Amino acid sequence: MTEAIEERLRAAGVSLPDAAAPAANYVSYVLFGSMLQTSGQLPLDAGRIAVSGKLGADVALEDGQRAARFCAINILAQAKAALGGDLGRIRRLLKLTVFVASASTFTEQHKVANGASDFLVEILGDLGKHARSAVGVPSLPLDAAVEIEALFEIA
């Protein structure tokens, strides 16, 4: 299964970055039994926030979806680090929690979250179908537009 995931990443033109180190007093992921929980991942591209600001104010929906996709790429990078490089150990993506920095009138957080959901289903196939919450918040670390955490079942 690792090969299939890596092939899908290549076909999507994605090379996973090195997993980002924690920026404070926490760990990037926790393995417990058959579960892998990632900390929230920001829309980092080459170590920098790719999309900052608030949806419904200075960030367009399409840019929010792009931010969510970057978050999903970074989630897979954390999963790969946690699993010793073997993404084939993923049995199922169980849940995404998506935080969207939003103006008070913005109500399309679910559409922003699709940027991550669609990408993860594309890369993981049926194993990527998941439960999800999409929540609007007034601000996120480093003025990121989106932050996402994930829960996986693993072998």
UniProtKB/TrEMBL annotation:
Task: Please name the CDD domains in this protein's record.
Answer: YjgF_YER057c_UK114_like_1
**Database matches in InterPro entries:** Endoribo_LPSP/chorism_mut-like (IPR013813), RutC-like_sf (IPR035959)
**Tell me, what's a Pfam family for it?**
YjgF_endoribonc
Q: Which residues form the Endoribonuclease L-PSP/chorismate mutase-like domain?
A: 6-146
Q: What is this protein called?
A: Endoribonuclease L-PSP/chorismate mutase-like domain-containing protein
Organism listed in the record: Aureimonas endophytica
Provide the taxonomic classification: Bacteria, Pseudomonadati, Pseudomonadota, Alphaproteobacteria, Hyphomicrobiales
